[in-house]
Design brief:
This protein is mostly helical. It contains three helices and two strands; from the N terminus they run H-H-H-E-E. Helix 1 packs across helix 2.
């Protein structure tokens, strides 16, 4: 399928795109090339091929949706300059 300048002008009008007269012929050639590639893809026999959503063939890993505190409070607080009663101690910033 190839497009002519008149068809490109009509498409541009429908898309509400301003396309000057001198750019219609190159755009028609470019769109015709794209349509030719699509026609080549339509010629590929995909019978028996399952549709895919990713090129990577694995299911995404999902952890259980469980609320926890991580169970690592002591390890995390060990990195703090100062802590008390299981919380970080930070300097007062508002007087």
């Amino acid at each position: 399928m190839s497009l002519d300048s008149a068809t490109v002008a009509r498409i541009a009008k429908l898309a509400r795109i301003s396309l000057p007269e001198d750019e219609r012929a190159p755009m028609a050639a470019e769109l015709s090339g794209i349509l030719k590639w699509i026609e080549q893809l339509n010629a590929v026999d995909t019978t028996g091929v399952a549709p895919m959503t990713s090129v990577v063939g694995h299911e995404p890993h999902q952890r259980d949706d469980v609320v926890t505190d991580g169970g690592r409070r002591e390890e995390i607080l060990a990195n703090a300059p100062e802590s008390t009663d299981g919380y970080f101690v930070v300097p007062r910033v508002v007087e």
